[in-house]
Amino acid sequence: MSDNEEQQEPKVEDSNAPINIKVLSSTGEEVFFKIKKNTKLTKLQGAYANKVGKDVNNIRFLYDGERINEDDTPASLGMIWFFSHRALQDDGDAIDVMVQQVGGSDDKKNDALCHVDCDLPSERGEFIYITSYSLGFNLKHNSTSTLPTDLNSHMAAARRAILVVAGIGNGSGTGASSARLFAKNGYQVALLARNADYLKKLADEINADGGQAEGFPVKEYSFDILHDTFSAIKKRFSDGDIRVGIYNAGFGVWKPFLDVTPEDLQKSLDSNITGAFAFSREIILALKQLPPDENRVKGTLIFTGATASTRGNVVTSAFASGKFALRALSQSLAKEFGKEDIHINLDSKVAHSIIDGGIITDRVRERRNDPEWEANEAVRLAPESIAKSYLYLAQQDRSAWTWELDLRPAHEKW
């Protein structure tokens, strides 16, 4: 040191200064917390449960592969040491989150890991990508441990989950609302529809809100076009896996039987039958290749049905024929692929028919021009509420699967 250089006093580190902690779920959703070093991590556990809407009693935290106990703090677990080596990093330390499935007596068998990927520095100042698991082994920085043979299946669970939704209308209905909600819950979202402008508008909205979405315009829902589209989706979201598919496309024909044209019938069949078959094929082929997620489920396929899925009416001969077929397809797939841990669901919601109620979308508002109806949530379906039901279906564990879900407003006559 030269005579002109000022000698600096060593900085005294606050023993209870806050540090940053990142929690990353198996769907890729990151949640960040700032917590003091001597604060019990049970407080963070409660905050995380509240953030993600889970029961705190069913959540367990792990750090470096070990379960965090009631009295553990960042200081007691040595998070301070890691944090002090990342002075130039914002990430802080990362914690594994374990969501405990309710039911059963074997605690280990009923624990499902939502593991965390994190960067930790080595002694030489390098940053090394590691993943810690609570499945009988740990990988620590600078480790040369031999990986277990089933590592690939657990690594896959750390990849982002992708939702593919077909049919978004003008962005005000069920498909668009589902896309928004799934994106907020950490899913990457692939949007399929015929109108490229509506696709771009919705994708831009989701991305501006912090989500990740991309629109994929399709001329029609044919086998060849959907096959090429799904290839494009996998290429675009190469860091994720398709976990949920929602087939929300449809074509409605409400005419007396003798007024239905061959073109009307063909459009109904193309959308409600051919398109549904082609979409189902691509989703199921993608799901069959995946390991189960934290709920022991490979993925979920949801069909949007209607009242016409279960009964016809005086002007629904063409429409009901397509929806009856869609319901039969979903039931057949549920029975065939349920044993492979693929969840198939038909949402049979009361919609489209004024007598049976309707979904409040921009087009319905314009057609009805009825402010009193719009204001009364007991007589019409909100697409945002339907989307919540879809998210619930995607999160069900194998002990209680829904095949057919019937949604209607509280004051609906049925």
TrEMBL record:
InterPro entries: NAD(P)-bd_dom_sf, Rad60/SUMO-like_dom, SDR_fam, Ubiquitin-like_dom, Ubiquitin-like_domsf. This is Ubiquitin-like domain-containing protein. Residues 17-79 form the Ubiquitin-like domain.
